[in-house]
Amino acid sequence: xxxxxxxxxxxxxxxxxxxxxxxKVTDQQGAIxxxxxxxxxxxxxxxxxxxxxxxxxxxxxxGDQILSVSFxxxxxxxxxxxxxxTPLEVTLxxxxxxxxxxxxxxxxxxxxxxxxxxxxxxxxxxxATTAGATADIAGALNTLPGTTKVGExxxxxxxxxxxxxxxxxxxxxVVLEAYRPSAPNTPSRGRFMPFMFxxxxxxxxxxxxxxxxxxxxxxxxxxxxxxxxxxxxxxILSVGADVGHTEVWERGSVSGKIQYTDIRPYFNLIKQYVxxxxxxxxxxxxxxxxxxxxxxxxxxxxxxxxxxxxxxxxHDVAQxxxxxxxELDNTFGYGNGSYQQSVSKNWSVRGGMSYNYNRNVYxxxxxxxxxxxxxxxxxxxxxxxxxxxxxxRMGGEVIARDYEASMxxxxxxxxxxxxxxEVVSATFVEAEAYASSKFITKxxxxxxxxxxxxxxxxxxxxxxxxxxxxxxxxxxxxxxFRQSVTNNYLRVNPTLGQEKASHYILNYQFxxxxxxxxxxxYYKKYDNxxxxxxxxxxxxxxxxxxxxxxIEFFWRDNQSLRNVDYWVSYSFLDTERDYLNFPHxxxxxxxxxxxxxxxxxxxxxxxxxxxxxxxxYSSGRPYYNPNNAAFNTDRTxxxxxxxxxxxxxxxxxxxxxxxxxxxxxxxxxFGYTYATTPGTDGVYASQPVRQPANxxxxxxxxxxxxxxxSINQLPNL
Length: 717
What we know:
2 domains, Maltoporin, Chain A, single chain, 5 helices
């Protein structure tokens, strides 16, 4: 009997020493937030909200405590609670951190009219979970309006601009080569993975005067702040493996990751159209350091290093049995340090420096040639609040870069070198003023000096927005943008002037609940484009010109269907150019008139699976057929792709991830390569430019080791 009494007493003491905490997590609009981490601050007691936003856990802590809730894309919220052993029920509300670029934004200009919700928004996690994107930032952004799917490149082609017209910035600092090297007519991938960043701002035109050297688009990636928990991530992948670790202390954190990719075993299983001698392999390492200073200062450092190589055979178009061995070794390094600090109630400063290094060594049948570029970018920006209606931003930057290309002269063995050193110095200022709660104006200008030409330029930028009611807003943006011509032409003629583009954008957008609608029309005028004659680049000048105009629609809905999020985008593009060696004005070969995407995501709670599907369509693109007297009038077949992915969570710390692109196996053709001379019948032989394989299949096992067992890599997929 006494043992029974003792046993019951122990149970009673344990019950008294525990408190049950339950509740629900929502956003400011009352929508549930599944997957949020709820914890008692300073402990490991906590849980994650389920698909209904509900959570429940017990704790042995007592007295006054702080309950913390966090989720990607939202500001961490805290609530004071008192633990007395009595069950406690709370409702936690998360606020989206859009003002800190926790989301992808598409806007007529880089500004917000009144509410943050006035913008068409894709949270950062959407980039990584979009089927068909294969966790590539550019791949996900290619499902948005304003982009054109150019499957043989993999880069971002925006509103009639080619892949070189989109510039990437990390924490405001430029990345000179943001894509990994790829074999001819095979898509490249971005060098940065989505999980590195707390937000991705993608502008299709009319962006801030802070950003230069970009004719069509600015892709601004903001890296994560201090990590909140120590953890180790392990990935066992069908194309390699990676391991990363994050260590956290009171006001700082450090993260590191190494990754090895080897496509050879995969290519042995999946038929390839490319004749590989050595399929691509790469080794990559990266590190991030974060340290909070003072009251609200933050120092960030990010660095990455990558080595990759491949070798393939190029077959002659007319005589396929004749082939050339093409080899590439690439070395890439990037380092970025930035600091931000409030210096008073109304003043804040931020600045940084980045270093870029990229080296390619090619060999054609053993004969070497290559290119090397390195550059330094420094920037300092000050922001001042004049009043509750007027804010001013001003700053300056210098981008200095050296480029060199070399080749060995056939027969003599002499080394031929071409190169240049360019310094672009710039200063900018812009002011944002609220005339009322319904009307805002943002105006500014960017002044640049280019050392190669000695020219000084001033580019105005202005954005306006008007909100007539509670749901929608109208916006207009104008800006002039410029960019140096690409390296392979500038090295031949370093005196070439910068190319220019003027943007005119008008849009309407409304967001209600969890639904977003947006329509936008634009006109873009190109001047000073590169032009050369008779195939001789040495005759190049800046007499080229062109235009691009179109209309775009976007609809997103994650409210109508339970556990379903989907969006639909459509773009119409009308563009022509007279540039490069075009004989007259024509549609460039990378432009398609119609682009459509449908993205669908569904979380199946009973089996803990996240399913995704993406369908993409692009109308046929023009290409030059030397057998046709009319220039660029032939059209490729339409591009169509249905891709799918699935993430299965057998354990909270374990994810099995599978994805497949082009599951129907459509043979997409992006153009044709022609022989340089006609055959005996007077016809130029051709071969199609197609995908390296009809499908790409990926399988990964992702493991997270942490004291908090609810943490996993789902947001990183």
